[in-house]
Amino acid sequence: MKRKLWVKAEKAMAKAARKAAEIEANSACMYFGYQDKMPDKLKKLRKF
Description:
By secondary structure, the protein is mostly helical. Helices cover 58% and strands 0% of the residues. The radius of gyration is 15 Å and the shape is elongated.
């Protein structure tokens, strides 16, 4: 029972992390020098 709950929690955290990465990849900081360089794997999540 605990194992199933742990697996579901891990899947939910992974899904939330991926969604946050997608949002980060498709947005820009309003200050020019503030946004860090994106890794290549994160660039693949861009929608345009």
